[in-house]
Amino acid sequence: MGSNMAEAHPVGFQWVMEAKARGAEVFHIDPRFTRTSALADAHVPLRAGTDIAFLGGVINHILSNDLDFREYVVAYTNASFLVSEDYQDTEDLDGLFSGYDEAKAAYDPSTWHYESIRPAEGGGHGKETSASDQHGSGGPVLEGGSEEIAADPTLQHPRCVFQILKRHFARYTPEMVEATCGTPKELFQRVCDAWTRNSGRERTAALVYSVGWTQHSVGAQYIRAGSIIQLLLGNIGRPGGGVFALRGHASIQGSTDIPTLFNLLPGYLPMPTPDQATLAGYLDSVRGDKQKGFWRNADAYTVSLLKEYWGEKATPDNDFCFGYLPRINGDHGTYRTVMDMVDGKVSGYFLLGQNPAVGSAHGRLQRLGMANLDWLVVRDLTMIESATFWKDAPEIETGEIVPEQCRTEVFFFPAASHVEKEGTFTQTQRMLQWREKAVEPAGDQRSELWFFHHLGRLVRERLAGSEDERDRPVLDLTWDYAVHGDEPSAEDVLRRINGQDLTTGKELGGYLELKADGSTSCGCWIYSGVYADGVNQAARRKSRFEQDFYAHEWGWVWPMDRRVLYNRASADPQGRPWSERKALIWWDAGKGEWTGHDVPDFEKTKPPDHVPPPDAVGPAALRGDDPFIMQSDGKAWLFAPSGLADGPLPTHYEPHESPFRNPFYAQQGNPTRKVYGRRDNPSHPSPPEAGGEVFPFVFTAARLTEHHTAGGMSRTLPYLSELQPDLFVEVSPELAKLRGLAHLGWAHVVTARAAVEARVFVTDRMAPLRVQDRIVHQVWMPYHWGGSGLVSRDVVNDLFGVVLDPNVFIQESKVATCDVRPGRRPRGAELLALLAEYRARAGITPETGTRVATAHGTEHVEPGHATEDRP
Question: Where in the numbering of this chain does the Molybdopterin oxidoreductase domain appear (predicted)?
Fold first, then answer.
C-alpha cells in the first residue's frame, strides 16, 4: 500500500513472489492497476489520498469483531493506559483534537498525556519546527516513571487507550470506506479477512509501503495507522511481520540515519535550538529524569558524537564543544529554502544527488529560486536540468528567465557513480552493505568523500590563523581521515562512525559501550558495532546457502546486527515463543539469558519476570516484559501521547486539494499542515471553498522501472530511453470520452501552476471510482522526464504546488486536483495566459488553501504563513 513494489523496487519484489509461490496471499492497495497489481492475488483500488479512511476501516473491523491479539496487546502496547480526563477526541471536536491553537494552527499536546504523568514543560509544537525537533526519536519526556501510569488491564475503562481507539475509529465502517475511498465493500472485506486470518499467535502478516504513503500532508499518520493495525494483530517484533519502508538503492535509509536533514543529528538526535545554551539543557529536552529505556542514555550518544566531531578539543570544561553545533531557529527545509531563494535571502546553494528542476514539487518555483542565486554548485553524473536551467528551462520560453540576465554562476563538478567508489549503502532492512570500487572514475569525476574532504581541507587552510571565534568550530574539527593517494578512505570513515574507546584506541563493539564522560567517540550511535573488533562487518558476504535464513554473516544491520527490531515481542511475557513455528528469541532459564535465532533486542540477562526497583531509570527501569526498549514507557504506542504535530491518532483528512468534502468531520484537511500562501505557489480551492469544479479530476504521479527518479541517470542511456521513449498520461476510457481524448494522441494536464503535455494512454488501469455517490476520475503520469537527455518532455512535477506534512516537512506530491484537455499545450505567453485564465475561473488568490481550520465554521489565515503579493 503506497508502493508499486514490482516497478519501483523490483529486486526486493522477487522475494514477495517467492513468498507467493509458497502460499502467501498478496494484496495490492493502490489507485492504479500496476505491475505489482498484476502479480498480486487482488488489486484493491482507492482514491488517492484516502488511505487513513481505508486503514481506519481495518482498525474498526479488528476492534468491532474482537480480532486483536489480546494477550500481545495488553502486555506490549499502551492499550491499558489511562489518558488525561482533559483529552478530547476528533469525535468531540468535529475533526480536531484538544489543544488546538487557531492562532498558531498547531497543537499543545499537554491534554494528550497519560493520567498522573506530568508532561514536560513547553511540550507544544510550533509551526516552524517539526515534531522530531522536540525529542528526537525518543518520544516525549516523562516526568514520572511509567510504573506510575494509571492503567486498566481489563481494557474497559472509558479513558483507557483501547476504548479511546474503539471510539475514534467506530465511524470508519465499510460503508464509509466505500463512500470515501471508492473501494467496493466486498474487496475491503476481503482485505480485512485475509489480514486478520493471517495474524495472531501462529501467523504473521507484513505491511509494505513507500513514498506513496509518505508524500502526503498526513504522511506520518498513514504510517501510524498501518503500525496500529500491526500492533493490534501482534505483527511487530515477530518473524514475517513488521512495517517495511522500502528504500531506494542510493542509501535513502542511510541519508536519514546519518542525516542530510536540517533538524536531526546522526542517530535521530534532535538538532539543538537557540534556547538550549548548554549541553545539560539540551539533554533535559531529549530525555526525562525518570523515563524508561535506552533513549535516556542520549547523553552518551551525544557526547560520543561531539568527541568524534571535535576530538581532543571537546572536553567536559567546554561542554564537549556543544556550543559549536548550529542551532535551528525555524523551518530550514528544502521548500522553505527555495522560497527564500526567490525572496533573495539565500546567496549560494550546494546541489548534490538531486535534480530539483525536475524531481521536486513545483519545478517552476525550484528553477526561479535557483535563478536568483549568486552561485550554485552542482555535483552530478551528467549535465542535469538543475545545472543548465539558466539557458534551457521552460521559463526561457515564457520570458521568466532571460539567460543574459540570469545572475547565477553555476559550478558543475562531475561525480563518480556508485560503481566508481567504495563505501556502504543502508537499505530497506536497515542493512549496511559494503561495496568495492568496480572501475576507476573517468576524467575528473570524483566521489562525494573526495569532494567534501578536500572542501573541508581547503576551507580550514583558508581560515588557518584566524582569531575570529566564529571560525573555531571549523578549525577545531577532527579532520585527519586516512587517504589513499588523494582519495579519502571510506573504510576509515566507517570506522569513525562505529566509534572508539579513546582510552585504548580499540573499536567499539556496539552502542552499549558508549560513555557520557568523553572516553568514547562515535559518529552515529545506532551504527556502533559495524566495525567491531576492527573488522568491516558490512563487508560480510557469506552465502545464504551456508547459514540460516537470518543471515547474520551477510552485511550488518543497525542496531547491533538485530535483524528484527523489538524482537522481545516475539516471545510471550513469560519468555516463551508465542508460536514454536514462529520462534525467534526466547528466555533460556538454564543459561539465564535470552537466546534464539536473532540478536536479542533486549538486555540479554534480564529475566522475563524482572520488576525494577521504584527508583530505577533508563534501561534499568525496563521490566522483563517491556519489549519496546526505546520508548519512554517500554510499550508500543497505539495512542501517541506526544511526538506528533497533528494528533495522537490517525484521522481521515482530505488532501490539501480535493474535489470532495470530508465525509467524517467538519475539519476538511490536516489542521496543522504547512501552507505557503504566495502568488507563486497557488493552491486549488477545496470544500468549503468555492471554485474547485474548475479542477475536477484527481491527479497522482509515480515511477517506471525503466527510468530512475528525475531521469538524469536513465534519459541519457539509449537502451532505457528506447524502452520508455515518451511521457504519457493514463486516463480511463470514460474520461477519454468525456474530454475527447484519443489513444496515443496528445493531451495536456492543467493545474494552477503549470500545463504539461503528454501522449494519451487510454486504459482500464485507471478505472473511475464512485465516491460520495458521484463518479470521480483519476489521472496518472510518470515523473521522469525533463528538458535534457535523449528523450525529453515537460516536467510533471511542475503540476504540484508546495504544501507539507507538519511532522517531517515532506511535500504532498502524490495527490492534487487537475483538469485534462485534448491536444498539445500552448507555448510562451499563451501558456501564461491559459494558467491565468484557470486561476481566474477558480477564483484563486494567494489566500486560497491557507484557511486550514474548518471545524465549527472557523476560518483562519496563519500568521507566519501570511499571503505575499509577489510575482
Answer: 1-383
Cβ partners under 8 Å of residue 114, min gap 6: 78, 81, 82, 83, 84, 149, 150, 633, 641
Helix 185-197, helix 51-64: angle, nearest 10: 60
Q: Which of 192, 7, 79, 76 is nearest to 649 (CA)?
A: 79
Q: DSSP character for 648?
A: S
- Residue 540 CA to residue 532 CA, distance in Å, equals 12
Produce one character per residue of 654-677: b if its CB has 16 or more CB atoms within 10 Å, e if not.
bbbbbbbbbebbbbbbbbbbbbbb
Residue 639 phi/psi, 5-degree rounding, is -120, 130
- What is the predicted pLDDT for the residue at 116? 79
- What lies within 8 Å, CB to CB, of 458 at 6+ separation is none
Give the strands of the sheet with 500-501, arranged side by side.
506-507, 500-501, 520-521
> How far apart, in Å, are the Cα atoms of 237 and each of 63, 398, 577, 709?
21, 55, 12, 32
Task: Measure the N-to-C terminal CA separation of the chain; round to a whole number of Å.
Answer: 39
SS3 101: strand
Record the cell numbers describing residue 444, joined without a space.
575528473
Could you tell me which of 159, 183, 203, 223 has the C-alpha nearest to residue 67? 203
- Cβ–Cβ < 8 Å for 155, 32: no
pLDDT of residue 255: 87
* Burial group, residue 101, by CB count within 10 angstroms (0-12, 13-18, 19+): middle
CA-based nearest residue to 854, from 722, 688, 691: 688
Average pLDDT over residues 575-601: 97
pLDDT in tens, 721-764: 999 999 999 999 999 999 999 999 999 999 999 999 999 999 99
Calpha distance 386→340 (Å, rounded): 17
Strands 755-762 and 746-750: antiparallel
pLDDT digits (tens, 9 = 90+) for 202-257: 999 999 999 999 999 999 999 999 999 999 999 999 999 999 999 876 788 888 99
Q: Give the per-residue SS3 of 192-246.
A: HHHHHHCCCCCCCCCEEECHHHHCCCCHHHHHHHHHHHHHHCCCCCCCCCCEEEC
C-alpha cell at 778: 483519476
User: Which percentage of the chain shows pLDDT scores above 70?
Assistant: 95
Between strands 243-245 and 207-209, the pairing is parallel
- Distance in angstroms (rounded) separating the CA atoms of residues 291 and 145: 6
Residue type, 853: A
Question: Cα-flanking dihedrals φ and ψ of residue 747, to 5°?
Answer: -150, 160
Measured CA to CA, the distance from residue 8 to residue 16 in angstroms comes to: 14
For 548, the enclosing helix (H) or strand (E) is none
With H, G, I as helix, E, B as strand and everything else as coil, classify residue 138.
helix
Contact in structure between 283 and 299 (CB atoms under 8 Å): yes
pTM above 0.85, yes or no: yes
What amino acid occupies position 716?
Answer: T
Q: Are 449 and 490 in contact (CB under 8 A)?
A: yes
Cα–Cα separations (whole angstroms), residue 159 to 89, 155, 577, 634, 648: 11, 9, 31, 20, 14
The alpha carbons of the chain give a radius of gyration, in whole angstroms, of: 27
Average pLDDT over residues 489-509: 97
Phi, psi of 541 (to 5 degrees): -140, 45
Long-range CB pairs of 664-667 (<8 Å, 24+ gap) are 664/53, 664/95, 664/171, 664/172, 664/176, 664/180, 665/90, 665/94, 665/95, 665/855, 666/94, 666/95, 666/854, 666/855, 666/856, 666/857, 667/90, 667/94, 667/95, 667/96, 667/853, 667/854, 667/855
SS3 state of residue 448: helix
Among 584, 648, 792, 751, residue whose Cα is nearest residue 168:
648
Average pLDDT over residues 89-110: 95
Name the maximum alpha-carbon separation found in the chain: 81
User: What pLDDT is attached to residue 743?
Assistant: 98
